[in-house]
């Protein structure tokens, strides 16, 4: 059942002995701005309950609610909230959003120029009752007793300020955490870059050391090879020396000259002449015309040599005298 209450619609009848809130049915009544769910057996509210953003007055007193949905602050049009006699210990941080910020500050000048536009955004929680809940001691002290209308209005203002402070502190902590995570990430990136640079330097150094080691091995092998060649040459020299000492010394060889060649030619000619002379003297060829000429020439030469010898003897005799 529904009955008219001022500008909105109030839902009270037939909402007793509930264990769950019929959110779908309530969402179909956007003009029902006043909702009374008191004196039920509600332990919790469904998450989609916060979609009922048209609610202005909400009574959840005398239930067994242990907590409110985390996004309870979506009910930004809520002005009157009764949570009397439940099992609440804390309120969600989003509770601070029940006070909507103005688009600009309502200073006296703005209030004089456009008071309706300025005050149109003052849709925030104005009345709150948290009595008979096992509240956190700090929250209980902030909420106060709510024994009359004035105290309940003060409770709404103070609780909203308290939740706003908690939200701001959580935002600062979140920002500090994000900043710390960013710094940690930067530090990790810097450490990773330093590690990669160190690994690169180590690889470069190992490569240079490997190159130097190979060069030294090559130089050592080259030196060993040269030393082996020198040793082989020395052994070959020592092996040849005993053989050469056992042989008789040989006269040094002189290069042939043109005089030796001429001498050989003259000896050959003389040998031919002697052979011819012997043939002409001792064989039957002595009567041949060639041999006759040869014999005659031979006799003339012998006579000339004898005369030359006689003359030489005479000259030697005269020189002795």
Q: What is the ordering of alpha helices and beta strands?
A: EEHEEEHHEHHHH
Shape descriptor:
rod-shaped
Number of distinct helices: 7
Largest sheet data: 6 strands, mixed
Please, what is the average pLDDT?
Answer: 82
Topology:
Elements (H helix, E strand, L loop, with lengths): L1 E4 L2 E4 L11 H5 L6 E3 L20 E3 L20 E3 L25 H6 L1 H5 L7 E3 L7 H7 L5 H98 L11 H25 L6 H32 L1
Parallel strand pairs: 2-3, 3-4, 4-5, 5-6
Antiparallel strand pairs: 1-2
Overview of this protein structure:
It comes from Serinus canaria (Island canary). Residues 166-257 are annotated as: Disordered. Residues 169-238 have a biased composition (Basic and acidic residues). Keywords: Leucine-rich repeat, Repeat. One of its GO terms (cellular component) is mitochondrial nucleoid. It is a single chain. The chain has 321 residues and is α/β, with parallel strands linked by helices. It is built from 7 helices and 6 strands. Strands 1-2-3-4-5-6 form a 6-stranded mixed beta sheet. Strand 1 and strand 2 (8-11) form a beta hairpin. Helix 6 (258-282) packs across helix 7. The longest helix is centred in the middle third of the chain and has 98 residues, at 149-246. It is rod-shaped. The N and C termini lie far apart (196 Å). 15% of the residues are buried. Mean pLDDT is 82; it is low at 1-8, 100-105 and 115-123.
């Amino acid at each position: 059942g529904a009955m008219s209450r001022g500008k909105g619609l109030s839902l009270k009848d037939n909402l007793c002995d509930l264990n769950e809130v019929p959110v779908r049915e309530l969402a179909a009544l956007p003009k029902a701005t006043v909702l009374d769910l008191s004196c039920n057996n509600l332990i919790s509210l469904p998450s989609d309950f916060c979609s009922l953003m048209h609610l202005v007055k909400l009574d959840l007193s005398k239930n067994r609610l242990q907590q409110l949905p985390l996004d309870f602050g979506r009910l930004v049009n809520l002005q009157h909230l009764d949570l009397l006699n439940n099992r609440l210990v804390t309120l969600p941080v989003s509770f601070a959003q029940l006070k909507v910020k103005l688009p600009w500050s309502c200073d006296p000048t703005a209030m004089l120029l456009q008071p309706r536009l300025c005050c149109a955004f003052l849709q925030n929680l104005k009345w709150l009752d948290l009595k008979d809940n096992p509240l956190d001691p700090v929250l209980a002290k902030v909420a106060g007793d709510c024994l009359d209308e004035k105290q309940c209005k003060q409770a709404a203002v103070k609780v909203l300020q308290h939740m706003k402070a908690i939200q701001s502190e959580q935002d600062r902590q979140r920002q500090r955490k994000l900043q710390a995570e960013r710094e940690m990430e930067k530090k990790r990136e810097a450490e990773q870059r330093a590690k990669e640079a160190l690994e690169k330097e180590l690889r470069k150094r190992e490569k240079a050391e490997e190159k130097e080691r190979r060069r030294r091995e090559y130089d050592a092998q080259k030196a060993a090879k040269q030393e082996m060649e020198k040793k082989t040459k020395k052994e070959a020299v020592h092996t040849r020396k005993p053989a050469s000492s056992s042989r008789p010394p040989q006269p040094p060889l002189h290069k042939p000259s043109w005089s030796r060649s001429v001498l050989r030619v003259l000896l050959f000619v003389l040998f031919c002449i002697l052979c011819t002379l012997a043939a002409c003297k001792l064989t039957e060829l002595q009567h041949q015309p060639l041999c006759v000429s040869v014999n005659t020439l031979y006799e003339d030469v012998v006579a000339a040599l004898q005369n030359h010898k006689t003359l030489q003897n005479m000259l030697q005799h005269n020189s002795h005298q």
